[in-house]
Specification:
GO terms for molecular function: electron transfer activity; heme binding. InterPro entries: Cyt_c-like_dom_sf. It is built from 5 helices and no strands. With about 160 residues, it is an all-alpha fold. The protein has one domain. Helix 2 runs antiparallel to helix 5. It is globular and about 40 Å long. It starts with a helix and ends in a 23-residue tail after the last helix.
Length: about 160
């Protein structure tokens, strides 16, 4: 099982855009979104979709990115050790808190972890948007799927 710091470091880093030579995310045609909007799915339907679609694709992405680090990718990799007790609620409080785009904290995260940021932003984010059938984040409205769907806000 991964330690919280290594898990947090691995899953951080998505609030800055860049391209990467990292493994590719499934394209929207490869990533099957849910049959209905996520909010309309029952708990059982969400769990089935996560097991059937999300977990295998995220496992492939993370293992391709770092096979030794993610050799045991599970639901807890993203949802945390207490996932069942928290009913798999996200954001996961154990993940590294992220700073809003454009802040010094966000810039420091990018400087500290450029490859991880590129991987999360260019691979994980679009894959999760497609897999959850979620709209892209719209900065003008503050609506849509963003890094903060999984990561808590830094204080």
């Amino acid at each position: 099982m991964r330690s919280a710091p290594s898990l947090a470091l691995a899953l951080v880093l998505a609030s800055c855009g860049a391209s990467s030579a990292a493994p590719t995310a499934p394209t929207p045609t490869e990533a099957a979104g849910p049959p209905r909007p996520w909010a309309e799915l029952s708990r059982d339907e969400r769990a089935a979709h996560m097991a059937r679609e999300v977990l295998p694709r995220m496992t492939d992405l993370f293992v391709a990115y770092d096979p030794s680090r993610y050799d045991a990718f599970t639901c807890a990799t993203c949802h945390g050790e207490g996932a069942r007790e928290r009913e798999y609620a996200m954001p996961n409080p154990a993940l590294l808190p992220l700073w809003p785009t454009g802040t010094e904290g966000q810039h420091q995260t990018v400087r500290d972890h450029p490859e991880g940021v590129r991987f999360m932003y260019s691979r994980v984010m679009p894959a999760m948007q497609a897999l959850l059938g979620a709209p892209e984040f719209d900065a003008s409205t503050g609506e849509g799927f963003s890094c903060f769907a999984c990561h808590p806000h830094a204080q």
